[in-house]
Amino acid sequence: MSEQKIPQGYKQTEIGVIPEDWQCKTLGEIGDVVRGGSPRPAGDPKYFNGNFIPWLTVASLTNIPSSKIYVTETLTKLTELGSLQSRVLKKGTLIISNSGATLGVAKVLDIKCCANDGVAAIINQRIGSKEFFVHYINTQTKKLQDQIATGNGQPNLNTDLIKGIFTPYPPLEEQTAIATALSDVDTLVSELEKLITKKQAIKTATMQQLLTGKIRLPQFALHADGSKKGFKQSELGDIPEDWEIVYLGDIALFFKGVGLPKSELVEDGLFPCVHYGQLFTKYNEQIGNVESTTNSSGSFFSQENDVLMPTSDVTPNGLATASCLMQSDVVLGGDILVIRFNANKVNGVFFSYLINILRNNVMQLVTGTTVYHLYGSDMAKFIFYKPSLSEQTAITTILSDMDSEIQALEKRLNKTRQIKQGMMQELLTGKTRLVQPEARGV
Prior knowledge:
Blueprint: E1 10-13, E2 16-19, E3 23-26, H1 27-30, E4 32-35, E5 48-56, H2 58-62, E6 70-71, E7 76-78, H3 80-84, E8 87-89, E9 94-97, E10 106-109, E11 113-115, E12 119-123, H4 130-139, H5 141-148, H6 159-163, E13 166-169, H7 172-210, E14 231-232, E15 239-240, E16 244-247, H8 248-251, E17 252-256, E18 265-266, E19 271-274, H9 278-281, E20 286-287, E21 292-294, E22 300-301, E23 306-310, E24 312-313, H10 316-319, E25 323-325, E26 331-332, E27 336-341, H11 348-357, H12 359-363, E28 367-368, E29 372-373, H13 376-379, E30 383-386, H14 389-427
Helix pairs in contact: 4-7, 7-14
Family: Belongs to the type-I restriction system S methylase family.
Keywords: Coiled coil, DNA-binding, Restriction system
Protein name: Type I restriction modification DNA specificity domain protein
């Protein structure tokens, strides 16, 4: 087998092929690698839950999204006495999580703080751009986690291992240019994440108002004489006077899907299908496009407006979810409860949204201990309030439009993340140069 040809202007190093004018250094060459320190005993009020200095832990790092490379706050603070038993780190220090779920994740401190022994730091940094190193180290996180996971007990990166981690070392001007480009994309990712969170919060608030009748859409808010519609007492509390309380078993039929193992999901199959697990992972309140197909024909087929709910899960909360299928003739797998309405009475999407705000009511119908179950006979006892079909449809349209906006933002977010991955592969290896050697006069 012939060796891989190295392009002109590049060289082979410990981290692979990089430009000839780049170097390869270890983190130990960049600065002094140290661990944080934790006061003992843990939880002692003399040291913890104080108000003197921020206290950086692995748990604090877990709450920071990957799009943010700076640590700007911590969950708790130490007392002054606690700080004397820990390690104080300056603002601008490069830190690396050395244990837990964030093992191998790097950040830059934007605050002065103390760090516990689950956090390592590069202090007295002698060379290089800390932001550049953070971006590179974070491309190696999965590799570091896989290497450490082979041991017994709690996996962790000790300081010797961290000192020996190799990193590319372009000229400083190029390090800065690369870090700036990647940070610009991170900023866009962060802004999209914030916008999605905001839109989701608005949707949740809108659902709470419209689906309970606390706010009525203008076309349904008044009587024919122009007077405002009021409320009435019901088993579910105050509801609009023109809504009715119904038992699900009185207005719906219940069916169960037929076994559809994952092995029977194929590309370009004859029939669209929904597998039980996809109700948790792929679909929300409305299933417009069915993503999977199968060649299995001896199964249960959907009708448009069917509402699908899982019938088993390890938590009761997992069963309190519903998705309305907007397509007929879809194969429905086992462990799926199918609720079939007369489409002239109940909008299935409206009912799926309603399940979200009546989750606790659904969970009261769940049976089981280790594995929880929800059957048609259980859901037949479910009580809910029902507006007119026209109001159901109007509410559904508003919420569906919000979902479409959120989904469009999520697609844009995923695309931006993919762009960043591509940029890292190009920029951190020198395949694409932001600063050419001749531009630096070398």
